[in-house]
Amino acid sequence: MFEFFTLFFIQRALLIGAVIAIVSGFIGPFILYRKMSFIGVGISHGTFAGIALGILLGVSPLPVAIIFAIGLGIFIGFTSRTGKISEDVSIGILFSFAMALGIFLISLSSGYHTDIMGYLFGDILAISNNDLYLAIGVLGSVVLWYILRSRQMKYMTFDEDFAKIAGVPVGIDYYIFMALISLAIVVIVNFVGVILASSIIIAPAASAKSLAKRFSSIVILSIVLAEVTIFSGIIFSYSLNISSGPSIVFFVTFVFLLSLLAGKIKFIKYTKRNSNSE
Amino acid sequence: MIKVNSLSVRYDNFEALSILSLTIEDGKFHAIMGPNGGGKTTFIKALVGLLPYEGRIEIDGIDHKRYLKKNSIGYLAQRGSQFSQFPITVLEVVEMGRYRFKEPDHTRKNKAFEFLKVFEMENFASKNINELSGGQQQRVLMARALATESKILILDEPLTGMDPKAQSLFYDMIKRIKDDFKLTIIMSSHDVGFISEYADNIICINRELIPHDKSAKVLTCTEVSKLYGPKIGIVEHHHLHSEKDDV
Ligand SMILES: Nc1ncnc2c1ncn2[C@@H]1O[C@H](COP(=O)(O)OP(=O)(O)OP(=O)(O)O)[C@@H](O)[C@H]1O
Ligand SMILES: [Mg+2]
């Protein structure tokens, strides 16, 4: 009986992991090429403030976290589009603030003895069906977005000025993208916690970037690498009975380092071949 | 026809450019000249809709902002401010210019390919643009500008980094596409010699419009000095291209 329950949780974790891998694979490469890799850190911490507020108000933390994350994502986007500062600057300031706010709110809700560690580092045993439905909903939106808007995203990531002149509604596309990143981060935070979330959306894309050349290959490879690392992380954590969040992040980082190495080897081979031919 | 009236472009409180009145006629090659920081790029960016401004610009009698909502302008940015490292193919770059056209994917690709041919870059269609040389990239971006099928082509110092031969080929090409596609070309450049020979009209800008004698197609020494400062003049040979460096 116990075995069965464990298996059920593991299956749900694997399923949500698979969903997250696809979401990250579609979004991550754009984040990378738009040089806003810090965004994951910013929004995941914003999510924490949302969760804390939900706990304080005694309502379900998830919807509050979603609103908070999207609000923060749009706000970060707004400050960087209209002001003279890049996304990373507002993120650097706002994520500390969000964390401070979160801790403050949690300490206010004294009666409630919350498992803060669970929110910070994730707990796949705490994943509910609602979390899974949310993840699948986000996956649907991301896939739809990729089908309908990835051409526009490519244009504006490559050359925003010309994209604008050519008629791409760059402002609208930008804010849609920010909202999708925020949704994706909420789902990932549910999975591996606030602290570990950012690497999952960035690292597979970064690994794929040093292995593949075409954008479509980078997206596909990101998805594959994310699947492999998340699955390995879950299975590893289960068999060693350790926390799954850190375990996944280990694998994600390990593959990233491997990809750097592979990129280097490719480069050395290339230069060797060229110097031999002289 | 582009009509500019009481134009003022600011960066915060700094007025980088003010033009009282200027008319840019159709079907001609207009050269914009002026010193570094004179406001050429500022003017061009305002024209293509990348910078907010005060005053009035009309294109073909239509208010500029309304015109830009429906039409693209063929635009080539000044080098160094062009694009990111995003992996995109040469063909896709040219396809950008066709964004407003409601046409199926294969038509868009075919059209883009045709414009690549104009610049003899069709063999590079599936290459990543970041793997081309600067001059090759410039041609692809020219193809993209033309692919908009706009009657107006605005080029911001397209000759930077080109060797003398490429420059003169470039001018021949400009003349050719101007006639083939019946374009109005507006182009900024520092090359007094070439411009004098090829341009139909010269617009001198140094934070404001600098008047010059329009009937003499060539800028005189005094006019060049007025534009660039008293210590600089030009050698009055108009046919020894190779001896003329940037002023
Ligand atoms: N983004 C900006 N913010 C503030 N000031 C700017 C900005 N861009 C340009 N300027 C200022 O506006 C003035 C005109 O610049 P602009 O780039 O239009 O000159 P330019 O004629 O194109 O020069 P160049 O020949 O070097 O290309 C300069 O004094 C410049 O310092
Ligand atoms: Mg300039």
CATH top level assignment of chain B: Alpha Beta
**How many β strands of chain A by DSSP?**
0
CATH architecture of chain A: Orthogonal Bundle
Q: Compute the gyration radius of chain A: what is it?
A: 20 Å
- Give a short account of the largest sheet of chain A: none
Helix count, DSSP H or I runs of 4 or more residues of chain A: 11
Architecture of chain B, according to CATH?
A: 3-Layer(aba) Sandwich
CATH homologous superfamily label of chain B: P-loop containing nucleotide triphosphate hydrolases
Helix/strand order of chain A: HHHHHHHHHHH
SS summary, helix count of chain B = 8
Record field, number of beta strands of chain B: 9
Specify the helix fraction band of chain B.
25-40%
The CATH topology label of chain B is: Rossmann fold
Measure the end-to-end span of chain B: 30 Å
Shape of chain B: globular
Question: Can you describe this structure?
Answer:
The complex is a heterodimer of chains A (278) and B (247). Chain A is mainly α. Chain A has one domain (2-198): ABC transporter involved in vitamin B12 uptake, BtuC. Chain A contains eleven helices and no strands. In chain A, helix 6 crosses helix 7 and helix 9 (197-211) packs parallel to helix 11. Chain B has a single domain, classed as Rossmann fold. In chain B, helix 3 crosses helix 4, helix 3 (90-96) packs parallel to helix 5 (134-147) and helix 4 (105-118) packs across helix 5 (134-147). Chain B has 247 residues and is an alpha/beta fold. Chain B has helices spanning 40-48, 64-70, 90-96, 105-118, 134-147, 164-180, 192-198, 221-228; strands spanning 2-11, 14-24, 29-33, 54-59, 62-63, 74-76, 152-156, 184-188, 201-204. Chain B contains eight helices and nine strands. The interface between A and B is medium-sized, with 18 and 25 residues. Adenosine-5'-triphosphate (ATP) binds at residues 11, 14, 16, 34, 36-42, 78 of chain B.
